Amino acid sequence: MPTLVLLRHGQSVWNAKNLFTGWVDVPLSEQGEQEALRGGKLLADEGLLPDVVHTSLLRRAIATANIALDAADRHWIPVTRDWRLNERHYGALQGKDKKQTLEEFGEEQFMLWRRSYDTPPPPIEKGSEFSQDADPRYEGVDAPLTECLADVVARFLPYWESRVLPDLRAGKVVMLAAHGNSLRALVKYLDGISDTDIAGLNIPTGIPLVYELDEGFVPTTPGGRYLDPDAAEEAIAGVAAQGR
Ligand code: DG2
């Protein structure tokens, strides 16, 4: 049965500081490294050994995959990295404090920017401190200046179809090491979640979420299965409460 392991990176230093991150390339915090290690141990304990891994171009996802795969003794598997797995570009909010943003703009606007399906934050100014326009890793990419979740679905799905599905079809256990919102985009697609209901879905850091898929690549258990459901439940509440 095709098996997909989704892993949001461990806590980053900006997650710990409660800052909007998006495409800013911040490292894991010490806690995040521990979460990645725990994620890898959970995979090993379960005997769920990835054959290939796909990551974003951001070091928090890359480091998480490295640490987790090392812990599961799968550090040697083939890896593919692509900007299409990147976090949602958070536009002009990148680098801003979530609590201050909530206080300044109010709950409704804050949640529209964080969780609505189709309202992007204001675009980031080119050349500003947290923009990526001079970053060589995006050479040749029509990099966005902001994104809503619908934009992430639109840029992620071509990658899913052209790069991930062939691995699943070949019978490989596929791990995707990515981000809160890029994984929300994929889960929305896999589980057929509505544009409205996806607002209520949050993904915790560092806990593997496993999907078994049928021959049509539809999840056999909607929502998949977290390898540590109690820790996931607690961490999901923490993500939902960010900014408060
Ligand atoms: C977080 C998600 O992304 O933030 O960009 O700030 O997964 O890369 O840490 P990640 C960010 P929220 O949408 O949950 O506020």
From TrEMBL:
Enzyme Commission number: 5.4.2.11
Catalytic activity: (2R)-2-phosphoglycerate = (2R)-3-phosphoglycerate
Swiss-Prot/TrEMBL keywords: Gluconeogenesis, Glycolysis, Isomerase
Active site: 9, 87
Annotated Pfam families: His_Phos_1 (PF00300)
Annotated residues for binding of substrate: 8-15, 21-22, 60, 87-90, 98, 114-115, 180-181
Family: Belongs to the phosphoglycerate mutase family. BPG-dependent PGAM subfamily.
Purpose of the protein: Catalyzes the interconversion of 2-phosphoglycerate and 3-phosphoglycerate.
HAMAP family, alphabetized: PGAM_GpmA
Protein name: 2,3-bisphosphoglycerate-dependent phosphoglycerate mutase
Source species of the chain: Pseudonocardia endophytica
Designated gene of the protein: gpmA
